[in-house]
Design brief:
It is a single chain. With 331 residues, this protein is α/β, with parallel strands linked by helices. It is 44% helix and 18% strand. It contains 12 helices and 10 strands. Helix 5 packs parallel to helix 9, helix 7 runs parallel beside helix 8 and helix 9 packs antiparallel against helix 10. The model has no long low-confidence stretch (mean pLDDT 93).
Length: 331
Amino acid sequence: MNPLVTIVIPVYKVEKFIVRCLQSVVSQLYSNIECILVNDVTPDSSMLIAEEFISNNPDFNFKVINQPYNQGLSMARNAGMDLAKGKYIYFLDSDDEITNYAIQHLVDLAEKTNAEMVLGQSVCINEEEGWERNYFPIASSKDILEGSKEIVWNFVKGKYPVMACDKLVRMDFLMENKLYFVKDLFSQDVLWSFQSMLKFEKIAFLREDTYLYYFHGASIIHNRGEKHFGNWITIAGYMNEAYKAEKNPYNKKLILENLVDFKASTLEMNWKAQKNEDLWKRSYKAYNQLNGLGIADYFSAAYSTKLKKQDLFYRLPLFIGYPFFRWRFGK
């Protein structure tokens, strides 16, 4: 059996990269693929170039969706999900590419393990500076994770990457759990991966390089501004609601740990990106409205000393918290 795989590629301002991306798709060793291009009303020549490529590859199963107006990456991916016919779906960004064996090996592992998601390894490439690195490693000691507790623990401990790309996911799992991307959210991978993690019962890792992630000036990771800080507050709010709704004490502890770490790490990224006092204080005050460790937790061995410090440092009154943060990180 060679089940159909849907590859979803949102297209927006990628005229320099789109051919490379599409060529990696048509070069796949696996043949039963439909590739959905979602035109997010790109203002450049990306779609003209893509359409020419499609016309030159008439035997490949390409489909094009034209969004009525620019709605962002989240809604473009959702549009692809709604049209997908495959047993599995795979998200590919239009400025990246995949190795020619990626889909074949991911499908083989998914069919063998019956996992709801399988993911490979990503190679991060900076062509301008001439380096390749693995910024999103699979650090889990196991090749297969089974059961909610094991999956939640590995996610919270950073044992597998949060990016939505390079993950082959069963469509029935996504639809059953209504795991769409949140509209108008720019850091959507973090939240989508968090929400998916809470539902998974089995995932598997393919320890082979399957995805080539290109760093360049237009990459989202290099362009953090005020909208991203607002997004982080939104994501933290979703995590907070998940914490309050969780019934399993073990998972509840881990979700809180993830929330505390998320608040601390994004406040530091916030400052490094902009060094804007007003933006930082806005995030700090918003985060202080969310859950954190209780007094008893500070005396419990269930939480690490590092986490306790993170929670304490970012729950001080603002008039103390901001000067203290600047003393630690603002020099």
